[in-house]
Amino acid sequence: MESVTTTTKILPGGGVGVSLSDPAQLIAAVPPLLGFRPADSIVLLGLGGPGGSRVGPVVRGGLPTAEHENEAVQTLLPLLLDHHVGTVVIVLIGRNPAHPPPSSGPPHRQLVDRLREALAGVGWQVPYPLWAQEIRKGARWAAYDDGQCGVLPDDTSTVTATAFTAAGQVTFGSREELARLLVPDDAPALARRAKLLTAATDVLSSFTDDELLVREGFEVVRVALNRMRRRELSFSDNQVVGLALALSQTPIRDTCLALPLVEHTCLDAERLWLELVRRTPAPERAEPAALLCYSAYQRGEGALAGLAVDNAREANPGHTLAALLSTCLSRGVHPDRIRGLGKTDHLDALWVPAP
Fold first, then answer.
1. Rounded distance, CA 220 to CA 67, Å?
2. Percentage above 90 pLDDT, the chain
3. Helices and strands (H and E) in the chain: how many
4. What is the pTM of this model?
5. Please, are residues 114 and 102 in contact by the beta-carbon 8 Å criterion?
């Protein structure tokens, strides 16, 4: 079966209101709703809330070849089942290069029919499916049912984009651009830190005071969180090693999982995990990558969460937490259902006062 890369974004605060009366504006709203500008994609906008016009989950998958359309539908549909959805809008972007151009109308009509049948079978309303050549100002769009067509407005100046920008949300130009956030440091730097980690681990293996190690590890993480608050993003090799050793201790890692629930610290913690993903060699890199995944997951940022968990599993294929998070993401589990993973017993050891 062809692998289908999926993304699920959960919008906070009950979702974002959209109008179904303007297809061009609806398509142009997809990049800020998803967090990046998708290409050659299926996008499903799950609508619910009062009046049924608030976008909750946004699900994206790559456009499959004809022989794998059923598998794609079966992969995407469950990602919406854990959410309160009454209506699903289908938006297709681009065309799988294996598909010849259609003789008339937008491409992938068979795929749209399969999606519509599966969604309606769950009991969801499925209004007009839409297609766009790409999501750019002036790009062509068309509806599958009634022949409506036109060109898209500037997706960076829609009401949705303006609201997300005002809230500090970044919309990336592509999924690849987002992935570049996780690109590691140069190989020599990682090799230096790997040697330091090996030496430090050998020393600590003979250390018998586990409680002291945990206390010191908490302090290392707390200091780093304070540095993030002050936007001090530079780390020496020894500081990276100290943080990697601290996060390898289960009580510290599990306490860090609770930081997404601390409003004034959650984004500082996520910045720290991102910095460490870039700076930490494998297999220790799996710990900050899993923490980054969980933090992004709790914010509903499925694209970043997916990239982070893939990073964690690449660094350490046997990482238990990463495997759990990967399963939850692949099944579209709502973030609230795994909010209890974090342990708060020692949260005061990481306490960073509110500004």
1. 53
2. 61
3. 14, 8
4. 0.89
5. no
